[in-house]
Amino acid sequence: MYSMFKTTEESQVTMTQLMLPSHSNFSGKIHGGFILSLMDQIAFACASRHSRNYCVTASVNKVDFLNPIEVGELVTLKASVNYTGKTSMVIGVRIESENIQTGEKKHCNSSYFTMVAKDKHGNNVQVPGIILDTKNKVRRYARSIARQEQAKNRSSEFRTSEFKMELYLDSLKDQNAKIELIDN
């Protein structure tokens, strides 16, 4: 049985990049797609460092852009392993921007990437576990388990064969939608 464990510090990755005009969208803010690409890169680097294998992105959990990022700011991405399964890892990614003239820092985003380790043939491979040596690490690990359970429940609850429309009709009354069913 595979029983290697590593500290989260062994695989943490930090990346800082200057935001250029070529990274901006039509409103002059940094394009969300560019930030997502950076997030995927750092999640890959962290997961690969932890597993010592090539890793692929299996899913991304909730990406909320909390504050806009301006051209000319420094963006720092930090990634750490929050959870390890048998072949997968949840990588927590935090993004902060910094105005280089004022020193003001803003938390712009936190997200969770599920990454799967692969061998050179593309098969899933087992990953080392993580050592939970602080209360915060235990909290992050437990939160990842809870997030997985919520995702399973969401998936089954809204599966076409399982969906019970009558349970949701009241909650739709005050929404910007009009129900005009033509079939059942």
Automatic annotation (TrEMBL):
The keyword Repeat does not apply. Keywords: Hydrolase. One of its GO terms (biological process) is acyl-CoA metabolic process. InterPro entries: Cytosol_ACT, HOTDOG_ACOT, HotDog_dom_sf, Thioestr_dom. GO terms for molecular function: long-chain fatty acyl-CoA hydrolase activity. It comes from the Bacteria. The keyword Hydrolase applies. Residues 9-121 form the HotDog ACOT-type domain. One of its GO terms (cellular component) is cytosol. CDD domains: BFIT_BACH (cd03442). Belongs to the acyl coenzyme A hydrolase family. This is Acyl-CoA thioesterase. It comes from Confluentibacter flavum. The lineage of its organism: Bacteria, Pseudomonadati, Bacteroidota, Flavobacteriia, Flavobacteriales.
